[in-house]
TrEMBL record:
Family stated for the protein in its record: Belongs to the metallo-dependent hydrolases superfamily.
Record PANTHER family: AMIDOHYDROLASE (PTHR43569), BLL3371 PROTEIN (PTHR43569:SF1)
Span of domain Amidohydrolase-related: 16-309
SUPFAM superfamilies cross-referenced by the UniProt entry: Metallo-dependent hydrolases
Protein name in the entry: Amidohydrolase-related domain-containing protein
Domain of life: Bacteria
Lineage: Bacteria, Pseudomonadati, Pseudomonadota, Betaproteobacteria, Burkholderiales
Organism from which the protein derives: Paraburkholderia nemoris
């Protein structure tokens, strides 16, 4: 692996973190963190260490020594009865601490009061997009096509279409076996900016699994309105496979180009398998053949433009 130039050392990079979470278990309801524990069902396995507050001070501690100049908060699965409460709380945090820079809240595209909740989110100035997870199959062998809440559901598509009226982006989080379905949606809505979360979740690191993942990404990348977040490379059981992760990063950037890829930490969830320094170093090692302009786009400029981070 080529030696990384000193001026591209992680601690000297300007970083915009395009995906992280915060939560206060005393002021909000987070069922996945506060209710019955289901570690075996979580895609990364045991997550007991996440069942505590994670606030701006914790985020600053985890990223200390790095030039993180802005961040994007992605909804943290707070109670779906408190969707707008989360947005309000994050704006209050921003006013007090400077974190986060902008907010991507949650709304279900099929909930009965969808339009009312969407309008309530828009009352807050730092809202930039929506994350709404469609119903997905639990494995590549299961078929849920056309079921309520899936990406083929007319009601769900109607909800997605509403984002364009507000100039909101969509954070797309589906397992790799649904990437081709998402590509069809992206083609149908060219006016909506979309960004693939967690590198398309390439959880199957077999050659066939990675081939299927790449085909899905290629279908998505054919749509110029789609970007990708280079994030969450951890595997179940806290496994961090640096060589495999670098391969995934290189493939994803080759498919989307440095113009449509952005760095994201996924803190604190990513801490189940790696700390911030390991994430940054793995990314830089994978991108060692790219020039400084490309690195700057991936680590900062693309997220600034996509999420309209003005200050």
């Amino acid at each position: 692996m080529p030696t990384r130039p000193l001026h591209r050392a992680g601690t000297q990079l300007t970083i915009v973190d395009a995906h992280h979470h915060l939560w206060d278990l005393a002021s909000g309801r987070y069922p996945w963190l506060q209710d019955a524990y289901h570690g075996s069902a979580f895609f990364l396995g045991e997550y007991q260490t996440l069942r505590r507050n994670y606030l701006p001070g914790d985020y600053r501690r985890d990223t200390s020594g790095y030039r993180v100049v802005a961040s994007v908060h992605i909804e943290a699965e707070r109670s779906r009865m408190q969707q707008v409460d989360e947005t309000r709380w994050l704006h209050e945090l921003r006013d007090c601490t400077g974190i986060p820079s902008v907010v991507v809240p949650h709304i279900s595209f099929v909930q009965a009061n969808r339009d009312e909740v969407l309008a309530a989110h828009m009352a807050w100035p730092r809202v930039r997009g929506i994350r709404s997870k469609p119903v997905t199959a639990r494995s590549p062998q299961e078929n849920v096509t056309g079921q309520p809440g899936t990406m083929q559901d007319p009601r769900w598509l109607e909800g997605l279409a509403a984002l364009e009226r507000y100039d909101l982006s969509w954070d797309l989080r589906v397992p790799f076996w649904h990437l081709a379905d998402a590509a069809e949606v992206a083609a149908a809505f060219p006016g909506i900016r979309m960004v693939v979360n967690h590198t398309g979740l390439p959880l199957d690191r077999s050659e066939q699994g990675l081939s299927n993942w790449r085909q899905g990404l290629e279908a998505l990348a054919a749509n110029p309105n789609v970007y990708i977040k280079l994030s969450e490379f951890g595997l179940a059981g806290g496994r961090w496979d640096a060589d495999s992760n670098q391969r995934i990063i290189r493939d994803a950037v080759a498919i989307f180009s440095p113009d449509r890829a952005m760095f994201a930490s996924n803190l604190p969830v990513s801490s189940l398998s790696a700390g911030f320094p390991a994430i940054v170093d793995t990314m830089l090692d994978a991108l060692a053949d790219y020039d400084d302009q490309a690195i700057a786009k991936i680590f900062a400029h693309n997220a600034i433009a996509f999420y309209r981070i003005y200050g």
